[in-house]
Amino acid sequence: MRVLIVGAGPTGLVLAHALLKAGVENLVILERRQTVVEASGAGIGLWPHTVRVLDQLGDGILESAQEMVPRMKRNARLGSEGNLILSTDMYEQIEENHGHPFMLFERMRFIELLYTHLPRASDLVLTGKSVASLSQTDKLVSVTCDDGSEYTGDILIGADGVHSITRSLLFGGLEDRRAKLADGFSASFRCIFGCGPLLPGLVPGEMVERSKGPISFQMLISDDTVMWFFYQRLEKMTTNKTYYSDAEMEELADTFKDFEVVEDRSICFGDLWQTKRRARLADLEEGLISQWSKGRVALVGDATHKMLPNLALGGNCAIESAVSLVNRLHNLIQTSPTPSTQELESVFIAYQQERESRARLFTRLSGLMLRHWWLLAKFLGFVGRFTSLENDRTVTDKVLTRISKPGLVLDFVPETQPKTGKVPWDISIVGLSTG
Ligand SMILES: Cc1cc2nc3c(=O)[nH]c(=O)nc-3n(C[C@H](O)[C@H](O)[C@H](O)COP(=O)(O)OP(=O)(O)OC[C@H]3O[C@@H](n4cnc5c(N)ncnc54)[C@H](O)[C@@H]3O)c2cc1C
Predict the structure, then answer these.
(1) What average pLDDT does range 156-177 have in this prediction?
(2) What is the per-residue pLDDT across 266-280, written as a single tens digit (0 to 9) for each?
(3) From the alpha carbon of 45, which atom of ligand 1 is closest?
(4) In the structure, what pLDDT confidence band is assigned to residue 376 with cuts at 50, 70 and 90?
(5) Within 10 A of 187 (CB to CB), how many other CB atoms are there?
(6) Is 243 exposed, middle or buried (CB count within 10 Å of its CB: 0-12, 13-18, 19+)?
(7) Atom of ligand 1 nearest to the CA of 229
(8) Average pLDDT of the segment spanning 415-419
(9) How would you label 383-392 residue by residue, b for 16+ Cβ within 10 Å and e otherwise?
(10) Which of 31, 118, 190 has most ligand 1 atoms within 8 Å of CB, for mutation?
(11) CA of 302 to the centre of ligand 1 (A)
(12) Rounded to an integer, what distance in angstroms lies between the CA atom of residue 162 and that of residue 185?
């Protein structure tokens, strides 16, 4: 069976790893960019259930990741005036609960990790291949790229992100792709995100958050890099695509320059801005599309579900969707090595059914939190006057465990570093005898 994947982002690369584990050797990833590892984006955080999957992908990925990431420890929340209202060892609590830690990566380093550990990476991932058209029959699916090259496979997986061309080619919308978001997606926030070097006074392993009215700020600090996100609510929700110029980004950043980002008020956003390595201003899409597959083609990751990044869930959710799809394909090819279109359609529908409700939950949870962070800050500030919230575990134990505890893993690949914490996984460790 030959599988074509469109896009070498986190989803496409995890799909490739997992398909190789499933015995699908004949695969190709078509990537629009000229290089897979590009200096772009800010950070990406992996929740413990996704770390389980990294372990399963093997080829030394987890070991390399463990050497790369900082030991995350504390979450500090500042009130609207910049005063400290909450400080918890949230990341330590997460690790106690699940065994594996929350891992923070600079995004390009995460892509590099997945790419450099992919067997036969330079043969499997073809760069400079921008998919432009798609056709399928009852037996095969073909795509043509901008450079005129053509690729044919038994299955095609569109892992080409929130503005997926595969989705437009399947369901229409090619004409107004530059102007409109896909049906199901909208944007209510925009965000300046970026990264830069560690400044004196920033503590590695900390996340600092601060909300002030419609503005929210997050900063995650690794051993040598600070990754930051400045969210601003749009005046009106939009379903149009907005393109911002560098001048608009500079202008917006300038309005936030005196926004204090540490509890002793010694560092302002302007300091992060002046020392940044890179930054980008973009609208943040939210939503789910209604149909995730058609015939021999399935969509995975941001192409199907897109959430705000404030809870660090989008990439985790995308990887979990990749896991769900590969589990089902692996199961199918045990009995049907060259599956019919009908068999594939059943698998794709079951995959959507398995993933849709959790993706919707994460999308809503992220949206709810960002919209009401200022209210939460007020509430915590009020409660904190009467009782100490220092190292309170309520949020980690009652809310955050719901993120990782039910997380899917590959059901056919043993875990090499199995870990369990205070909260048992819903899916038991794979590869260990339960007897
Ligand atoms: C500021 C910010 C911070 C975030 N932080 C986190 C976090 O901490 N944790 C987390 O889990 N998630 C986070 N996310 C979300 C996460 O980045 C996405 O969910 C994730 O990147 C989705 O991966 P993907 O592979 O589906 O899509 P993408 O990362 O968008 O990758 C799609 C790939 O497809 C390629 N492509 C596109 N069109 C074509 C074409 N026509 N032909 C060939 N290739 C094509 C693109 O070049 C790209 O390489 C964050 C998002 C943002 C915006």
Answers:
(1) 94
(2) 999 999 999 999 999
(3) 8
(4) confident
(5) 23
(6) exposed
(7) 1
(8) 96
(9) ebeeeebeeb
(10) 31
(11) 6
(12) 9
